[in-house]
Design brief:
heterodimer, A: about 425 residues, alpha+beta, Rieske Iron-sulfur Protein, Naphthalene 1,2-dioxygenase Alpha Subunit, Chain A, domain 1, seven-stranded antiparallel beta sheet, 10 helices, B: about 160 residues, Nuclear Transport Factor 2, Chain: A, seven-stranded mixed beta sheet, 4 helices, 8 strands, about 25% helix, about 45% strand
Chain lengths: ~425, ~160
């Protein structure tokens, strides 16, 4: 099936709302993007540090096991028994030499190879599998896995995927290294289920325009304002992007002039306890906000000293889970860990600067179901070619997202920009 | 463990007011149930069972609680809804210097403006409260949510 999308413009400055509501399109996304040549974020190496460690994750809506074998090599395979389709690993995480399906006890190695099944040769010469049953050929589908400074990516279609370095680009590998410059320590997880299509979250991450408007906390308490020095960077194919800002690069007067609606509040509102706004600069580049986003399902996020990865897990056409893994560094002292956890008040499902996203996405999903052929307007920051910008009054990276999405989906408009 | 009737009543009343003040959107009154030196934390069972310290929300003194409420009133935007807490019985663990430690199971339902209700969170509170002269104040509340998958977003306190 080739999706038929009537793009009003070739630069994705108009995006039909029905793309967030169509079941058939959703199934095609699972096939062509998540089980296609894209590299998806799996988890972090630090979560499976020892031989035999495993954890379960999701690529699109496919359940996946990621495990480290006794030689330290990391494998990923579809978490579905070859026999009758049961989920093989039902725990979130653990350590095991082999995985046994509960249903008929089919047995898999840590690498996901089918290694045995009960009564294969029958009992007393009766029953059993045909002699030519080839266990190796019936193993669950495997993913190719790549570790980029300890961040694990996987693809179902390595024969069609680019090498991970060129997929992420210089920008991508460089920024992952920045976050993973020292050994990390996992501080924990948070999960949020948003009743909206997964692409609305992907758009949100590429929409730097909304950050200081929807999240008024940012502006009111001066964590991040469009008046700060910053911008958006993308890879050459404009599928990944990074919204970023540098700490303390604007003045209260500039901010007041820019945010006239909230200006009064800038003077009036103070936090009684400001420690959750403290930024202890720990990066050479001085950025206090960095949110590199990787097509299709991941981002790394730094807001002050709160650090995390987020994974988008599509749950049907009208819902997704945002799975967040919060981390610090192994060499953090107790005070720094405490500071990171206090900073975590800013992010996550209850975050002062992130709770609004859930609501914004849900009200878009609610209101656009009946939108017919109507389109979203994506023109802030300009039309035409997509390029990096040294400001953040833009939603241009959203157009970059759609251009790559349309390419993988086989649904580009004539003379499409890329 | 033998609990004096007066203590049982004071702490029962405290938790009833805790739930009602949130359900009636009297968040300022909710803050006043806490001692000046207090701790309020929302964590998930998934993290607790792995001994992982991550928090969904953490106020380590009363001013941070006041800041949360001020932010809800004037800064943050979230889903318009009604809260309804249903609390279970207090399970006492220990007492030290008139500070009582106990668990309370909770369910928290949310109802949206058009009337649809959903179970928003279920779990337990681990509470430490000071009882003095028949009155009780919260020293520490740790919300340990079984519901690790937060529906939509978490704004108003649990």
């Amino acid at each position: 099936m080739e999706p038929k999308i009537d793009w009003p413009r070739n630069d994705y400055s108009r995006v039909p709302f029905w793309l967030h509501h169509d079941e058939a399109l959703y199934e095609l996304e699972m096939e062509r993007i998540f089980r296609g040549p894209a590299w998806s974020y799996l988890c972090l190496e630090a979560e499976i540090p020892h031989p035999g460690d495993f954890r379960t994750t999701w690529i699109g809506d496919t359940p996946v096991v990621v495990s480290r074998n006794k030689d330290g090599v990391i494998h990923a395979f579809v978490n579905r028994c070859s026999h009758r389709g049961a989920m093989i690993v039902r725990e979130l995480r653990g350590n095991a030499e082999r995985h046994v399906c509960l249903y008929h006890r089919w047995c898999y190695s840590g690498a996901g190879e089918l290694t045995g099944l009960p009564f294969r040769k029958g009992l007393r010469g009766e029953g059993g599998m045909p002699a030519d049953f080839d266990m190796r050929a019936e193993s669950p589908r495997k993913l190719a896995v790549a570790s980029v400074h300890g961040v694990l990516f996987g693809t179902f279609s390595p024969e069609h995927a680019e090498p991970i370095e060129s997929y992420l680009g210089e920008f991508g590998t460089g920024i992952v290294k920045r976050f993973m410059s020292r050994p990390i320590r996992i501080l924990g997880y948070s999960r949020q289920r948003i009743a909206g299509n997964w692409k609305l979250y992907a758009e949100n991450l590429r929409d730097t325009y909304h950050a200081s408007l929807l999240h008024e906390f940012f502006v009111t308490y001066g964590v991040d304002r469009a008046t700060q020095k910053g911008g958006v960077k993308m890879d050459a194919r404009h599928r990944h992007n990074m919204n970023h800002a540098y700490a303390a690069t604007d003045t209260q007067e500039e901010a007041k002039a820019a945010y006239s609606d909230t200006a009064a509040r800038l003077d009036r509102m103070q936090l009684r306890d400001t420690k959750l706004l403290q930024f202890k600069n720990e990066f050479a580049d001085g950025m206090n906000l960095a949110a590199p986003t990787f097509f299709p399902n991941a981002l790394l996020i730094q807001i002050n000293n709160s650090l995390a990865t987020r994974q988008i897990r599509p749950k049907g056409v009208a819902a997704h889970e945002v799975f967040q893994t919060v981390f610090g560094y192994v060499d953090d002292d107790e005070a720094m860990t405490r500071h990171r956890l206090i900073s975590a008040n800013l992010v996550g499902p209850a975050g002062f600067v992130s709770m609004e996203d859930g609501e914004a996405i849900e009200v878009v999903q609610k209101a656009t179901r009946s939108a017919g052929d109507a389109c979203a307007i994506v023109e802030m920051g300009g039309r035409g070619a997509v390029r990096d910008l040294a400001h953040r009054v833009t939603e241009t990276p959203i157009r970059g997202f759609w251009s790559y999405w349309a390419e993988l989906m086989g649904a580009e408009p004539p003379n499409a920009i890329r | 463990m033998k609990i004096p009737t007066q203590v049982r009543e004071a702490l029962g009343d405290l938790m009833a007011e805790y739930a009602l003040s949130i359900d009636e959107n009297r968040l300022e009154d909710w803050v006043e149930l806490f001692d000046e030196r207090c701790d309020y934390k929302v964590v998930t069972r998934e993290n607790v069972e792995q001994s992982l310290p991550n928090v969904l929300m953490w106020c380590d003194n009363k001013n941070m609680l006041r800041d949360r409420v001020q932010s809800y009133r004037h800064v943050n935007l979230y889903n318009p809804h009604y809260d309804r807490h249903v609390l279970g019985l207090l399970h006492f663990i220990e007492e030290k210097d008139s500070v009582w430690r106990f668990d309370v199971p909770y369910s928290l339902f949310q109802t949206e403006l058009e009337g649809a209700s959903r179970l928003f969170s279920v779990g337990r509170y681990r509470v430490e409260a000071l009882v003095e002269g028949g009155a009780a104040r919260l020293k520490s509340v740790t919300v340990i949510a079984d519901t690790g998958l937060v529906p939509s977003l978490l704004a108003t306190p649990v």
